[in-house]
Automatic annotation (TrEMBL):
UniProt-annotated location(s): Cell membrane; Membrane, Caveola
Name of this chain's protein: Scavenger receptor class B member 1
Record bears the keyword Oxidoreductase: no
Translocase among keywords: no
Family indicated by similarity: Belongs to the CD36 family.
Cellular component, GO annotation: caveola; cytoplasm
GO molecular function, one term: scavenger receptor activity
Primary subcellular site in the record, as a coarse category: membrane
PANTHER family hit by this protein: SCAVENGER RECEPTOR CLASS B MEMBER 1 (PTHR11923:SF110), SCAVENGER RECEPTOR CLASS B TYPE-1 SR-B1 (PTHR11923)
Lineage: Eukaryota, Metazoa, Ecdysozoa, Arthropoda, Hexapoda
Gene for this chain: HaOG205591
Length: 432
């Protein structure tokens, strides 16, 4: 009986110690687990794993699905004093912005091809647009404006540095057409193209420069006669960093053939869908826009807590993007604030700037009336999630203008020699 009592006492003490030990272990666990969660952030690790750029991953599958991209709000510059300007009565060309005409971009990628070592991924970018009538001023087909005759002015400017006999031939060929530097045209045709005999004349005088019969501002931007094949990094260190971009033009010669037209290589430049994980402000980044064929340097300006609760790094387009450019034909320096995009517009004299020439050389507005460079309206901002490093929100406002060269060789265009003509600008908004 005594032995049983002692045994029970010993068991009780053991049980008591086990309970204390269990309590202590539980406390240690509850103390360590939150610390590990803070350090390791399992949710972030799971997301990071799911967003690997590798065959079979969720990201790999998502890239092949058509997804909403930027919402493009286009504003076209209407010319209100074209006759007075051409006659010399007005020194300044008066413009007014008309819009918006809103289009939704949809993007996806085809023929995803990982490299043998899995460090890179090649793919063909695809894009299409849909008109959004409820967010637009009106149907572009119903809005007729006084607009620059882009085929005429582009052709004259492009040929301004050709031999005199070619310029004379151009004058003889277009005179019967009665073409004027400005014309009344509906916005739809202005944006998406219309057949123009001047383009055919240019192609005959300067073969290989253009290979299309119609010309439209957005039609050239979303050129469906070409494909862009891009290769990007696929590791955590360089995810979505562009290694090269090849442009292929579809030419029908008995069958459909892909002709490699150009190739570009890059440094610290990313396909704007994403960036390497755990991005920091010290990492230099640029983004590349297909269709414009130009790189934009991003400048870090701060961080912000976004609607979803996460922290985002905030960038703007650096002014360095718009400096040091030269005319590719004359090699004369452009005024500060514009970059040449003629490579994507088949040598035609187009430049890109911030809307209304914000942060640009005042000389660009010297002979223009009606521009209102307001940076609170025309925002350029990119928000990138700090942990996952995907683009969360984008707001861009960029303008296309024409830099007309010395076109005094043509009587119809001579008053526009060495003039900058704003054509249109677009606000691009995107939020994931």
């Amino acid at each position: 009986m005594v032995l049983l009592t002692r045994r029970d006492a010993i068991n009780a003490r053991i049980t008591s110690k086990n309970k204390i030990l269990a309590v202590l272990l539980t406390g240690v666990v509850f103390l360590i687990v939150p610390i590990l969660i803070i350090i390791l952030d399992p949710i972030h690790l799971i997301i990071k794993y799911k967003l690997r750029l590798t065959k079979g991953s969720i990201l790999y599958e998502l890239l092949q699905q058509e997804m909403q991209a930027g919402r493009l709000s286009v504003y076209v510059f209407n010319i209100t004093n074209s006759e007075r300007f051409l006659s010399g009565e007005d020194y300044k060309l008066k413009v007014e912005e008309i819009g918006p005409f809103v289009f939704q971009e949809y993007r996806w990628y085809e023929d995803l091809e990982p490299s043998e070592d899995g460090t890179r991924m090649a793919m063909t970018a695809k894009v299409r647009t849909e008109f959004i009538p409820e967010e637009s001023l009106a149907d572009p087909k119903d809005v007729i404006l006084r607009l620059p005759n882009l085929p005429l002015l582009s052709s004259a400017s492009l040929l301004s540095n050709y031999p005199s006999f070619i310029r004379s031939a151009f004058n003889l060929m277009i005179t019967p057409l009665g073409a004027k530097p400005f014309l009344n045209l509906d916005v739809h045709n202005f944006l998406w193209g219309y057949n123009n005999p001047i383009i055919k004349i240019l192609n005959g005088l300067a073969p290989g420069v253009v290979y299309f019969d119609s010309f439209g501002l957005l039609d050239r931007l979303y050129d469906n006669t070409s494909d862009y094949r891009i290769e990007v990094g696929a590791t955590d260190k360089d995810r979505f960093e562009i290694k090269w971009v090849k442009k292929y033009r579809h030419i029908k010669m008995g069958g459909i053939e892909d002709v490699e037209e150009s190739i570009q290589t890059f440094n610290n430049t990313y396909e704007a869908e994403g960036y390497p994980p755990n991005l920091t402000p010290e990492v230099p980044i640029n983004f590349y826009r297909l269709g414009i064929c130009r790189t934009f340097a991003l400048q870090y300006i701060g961080s912000r807590i976004m609607d979803y609760g996460g922290e985002a790094l905030i960038y703007t387009i650096s002014n360095d993007t718009f400096m040091g450019e030269v005319d590719p034909i004359t090699l004369k320096p452009y005024p500060y604030g514009v970059i040449d995009i003629s490579k994507c517009y088949y040598g035609l004299p187009f430049v890109l700037s911030k809307s209304h020439f914000i942060d640009s050389d005042p000389i660009l507005r010297e002979r223009l009336d009606g521009l209102n460079p307001d940076r609170d309206v025309h925002i350029n901002e990119v928000a990138i999630d700090r942990r996952v490093s995907v683009t969360y929100k984008t707001k861009l406002s960029l303008q296309v203008s024409m830099m007309v060269d010395d076109v005094s060789f043509n009587s119809m265009t001579k008053m526009l020699s060495n003039t900058v003509i704003p054509i249109a600008y677009a606000r691009v908004a995107n939020q994931k």
